[in-house]
UniProtKB/TrEMBL annotation:
Entry-linked Pfam families: CheB_methylest
Catalysis performed (reactions): [protein]-L-glutamate 5-O-methyl ester + H2O = L-glutamyl-[protein] + methanol + H(+)
InterPro entries: CheB_C (IPR035909), Sig_transdc_resp-reg_Me-estase (IPR000673)
Protein name: protein-glutamate methylesterase
Amino acid sequence: MSEDQTDPAAVVIGASVGAIGALGTLLPELPADFPMPVLVVVHIPPEGRSSLPELFASRCALPVKEAEDKEEILPGTIYFAPANYHLLVEPDFRIALSNEEPVLFSRPAIDLLFESAADAYGTSLTGVILTGASSDGAHGLAAVAQSGGTALVQDPATAEGQVMPLAALDACPQARALGLPQISTFLRQLTPNS
């Protein structure tokens, strides 16, 4: 990226229980010319390989892949955290995978993605917490807001798992609680310098 382009921008999404349905509403709505990378952590069992990239690849206009260690984060690509690895963003906008201890019993952990992305992207980051049954992501979303980024939370009344969005709103009261259609509309209207 050359120095005269807009600051790199990104979207980070975290979800747990009910993630497939919620992401199935959001991700296919992103157009093929969506200008930012989307990094996603879903709480998945540690054993084996995640089938999420394959599940969503055929449903999305954007390329969908499992994140790989040290790869450059490219615009207009959806990255899923692999099973049993934390997904982090390096200051040079590359992916780092870590097998450090689970956070709130989860690896990958939403908090670690959001906190590292907030450090890297600052005001150009949009964080989205969706349905889930743990408080993972609450501190991460607060970090996004504290860095000047945008914080969105799925309206708990519409979430299959209400614990995660409620915890996120409690930790980050300035976050906007929206239904999935409204989050989808918000994301489609994002531009790298918005």
